[in-house]
Design goal:
Distance between the termini: 36 Å
CATH topology of the largest domain: Dipeptide-binding Protein, domain 3
Number of helices: 16
Structural class: alpha+beta
Radius of gyration: 23 Å
Number of strands: 21
CATH architecture of the largest domain: Roll
């Protein structure tokens, strides 16, 4: 999913984690601590036994919209997974498990037909029956061109989904009827694929497959209401929580879903809280002050204060660091000249010193890298794998700018280069990074840029509308496979390819890899695509792999213990039904 703070699932080897932890250690501090070390190298704050009742208030970032069939940013999906769930879910080891479904799908011998049986007695939060037709509608909703789901591409292998989604005339009843999803009976539905797909069961855990309450939205073109005061009552929910209040720019209030059962959770858990309040605070420094005052029980760490906050809260067991399957970088809109010129993109990438930026703006909290795919992802590469091609080198950066025609004997400073805008959210670390890039471009290339600071929802909307030049952002893995890092992001016309990467070599390798049942060949192709993405700077110049840093009150149960690569914005938000208070 796309990132606001720069976003999901990953199997981490202990050896790889040890290497990453060594690189990301802060000022020589011991990188263990902050609680009990858990498998995978995270440090988990100690928590007591969860009690019935109580309230929690957590700081988070507001999303652009709250329709899971349209969403693509972690801020939206974090909240949506509290309110809705798919037929399946990934457990803590990233293995698909039944949630609303009674069992894993029955797959035909040719690998093309998936038959899914639901648990009996499923109910929406408003008491209506949750039926197979609701899950069918969820897929039809995502495939509908009127809805224009950002993640439709993950369903592109469903027969007819692409044909309907690409229909320039909009909704077409005949095209929708041809989509390979149908209700067999009230508790059974069937999906037909165009090609066998090794990762499809994992995709059935994702938000584009969340059910739609057909009794409220009987047509696939029905748009969900925009977040606002009327939003909670206009919807029905099948997740662990229901929304009871929504005030844009301020907060959302949630309460337990009366029709949720523990058996729907991979950890057999149901909410115990009376009320959960999500406070929308864009600026992590403000969130951290609220945490220190006791106004919120959870906050993300402002990385420009990482060392001080860690020093204060690690001894009390309130600090948690979690390595994430996330890569950040400078995303570039290739339809905005001169960013359509490879030498310009290479000049910008090679002017940046990400090792020093990490120390200055993230206080050593991240891992500098030249690879898009992290080393611990299948097909990934070591952080320095492409240093020779895109690593920090001011001399090479100036040579690329000269080759692009913006720096020569008559123009030694590059002063004729157009002023590009860096679009960032209003947080100290984001502003620091933007100012760092701005100064690096000025110092090493002699070019000027502008910084535009906006709130989280505006930044998300601007990216989706492709209304940006330079966008410090990135990607957080949705499911544990390299295709999730590439398909839809770097193939021409991909649903999340808003930087407009279009490379025939990448497209050819994606086509050869996507439905390749030879695992060795498939992973090799994705590894080759990774190299093409970074060496041709096809939409992004990677600069950091990410660790999340959290503050969690000692009486909070369920957040730290369940935090892993599936987190969106809040520790353990992939399984918020485990959150609670201890005595």
């Amino acid at each position: 999913m796309k990132l606001l703070r720069a976003w999901r699932y990953l199997l981490l080897s202990i050896a790889a984690l040890a290497a990453l932890a060594a690189l990301a250690a802060c000022g020589g501090d011991d990188d263990e601590g902050g609680g009990t070390a858990t498998p995978g190298g995270t440090a988990t704050p100690a928590a007591g036994t969860r009690i019935e009742g109580g309230e929690l208030t957590v700081a988070t970032v507001e999303g652009d919209k709250l329709d899971p069939h349209q969403s693509s940013f972690a801020t939206e999906i974090s909240l949506e997974r509290m309110l809705w769930r798919a037929a399946y879910t990934l457990d803590g080891k990233d293995v698909p498990q039944p949630a609303m479904a009674a069992a894993l799908p029955v797959i035909s011998a040719d690998g093309l037909t998936y038959t899914i049986k639901l648990k009996s007695g499923l109910k929406w939060s408003d008491g209506n029956d949750l039926l197979a037709e609701d899950f069918v509608m969820g897929i039809l909703h995502t495939c509908n061109p009127v809805i224009a789901g950002e993640y439709q591409y993950v369903l592109s292998n469903i027969v007819g989904c692409d044909a309907h989604f690409a229909n320039e005339a909009g909704f077409d009843a005949a095209l929708e009827a041809a989509i390979g999803v149908k209700e067999i009976d009230d508790l059974t539905y069937q999906i037909t694929l165009a090609n066998p797909q090794p990762t499809f069961t994992m995709i059935l855990t994702m938000w584009p497959t969340f059910p739609v309450p057909v009794h409220l939205f009987p047509n696939s073109s029905d748009e969900w209401p925009a977040p606002g005061p009327a939003y909670p009552a206009a919807l029905a929910y099948n997740g662990p929580y229901i929304a009871t209040e929504y005030e844009p720019g301020d907060h959302a209030t949630l309460a337990p879903n009366p029709n949720w059962k523990a058996e729907y959770s991979p950890l057999n858990a149901a909410p115990t809280l009376d009320k959960l309040t999500l406070r929308f605070i864009d600026d992590m420094a403000v969130a951290d002050r609220a945490y220190e005052k006791g106004e919120v029980d959870f906050a993300n760490v402002n990385l420009t204060e990482l060392k001080a906050l860690r020093s204060k809260f690690e001894p009390t067991g309130e600090y948690l660091r979690v390595l994430k399957p996330t890569t950040t970088g400078m995303e570039m809109n290739l339809e905005r000249p001169p960013l359509d010129n490879l030498d310009v993109r290479l000049a910008l990438v090679r002017a940046d010193d990400h090792e020093l930026e990490n120390e200055v703006c993230q206080q050593g909290g991240q891992v500098p890298s030249t690879s898009w795919l992290p080393e611990v992802v299948k097909g990934g590469a070591a952080p320095d794998a492409f240093a020779a091609q895109i690593g920090h080198d001011p001399v090479k950066a100036r040579e690329h700018l000269t080759k692009a025609g913006y720096k020569n004997a008559d123009n030694p400073t590059g002063k004729d280069f157009p002023v590009l805008t860096i679009l960032v959210r209003d947080t100290p670390s984001a502003k620091c990074s933007a100012e760092w890039h701005q100064e690096q471009y000025r110092k090493e290339l002699g070019i000027e840029t502008k910084i535009e600071i906006v709130d989280g929802p505006t930044r998300s909307a601007r990216f989706k509308a492709e209304d940006f030049d330079l966008f410090p952002g990135g990607w957080q893995q949705d499911y544990p496979d390299p295709e999730n890092w590439i398909i839809g992001l770097f193939d021409t016309g991909g649903g999340n390819n808003h930087y407009n990467c279009s490379d025939p070599d990448i497209d050819a390798k994606v086509k050869a890899a996507q439905f390749n049942t030879n695992e060795t060949e498939r992973i090799k192709l994705y590894s080759e695509i990774n190299e093409l993405i970074v060496t041709r700077v096809c939409g992004i110049g990677p600069f950091l792999h990410v660790a999340d840093h959290y503050l969690i009150k000692p009486y909070v149960v369920g957040m730290g213990e369940n935090s892993n690569g599936q987190d969106g914005v809040i520790a353990g938000d992939w399984i918020a039904e485990t959150w609670g208070r201890s005595e």
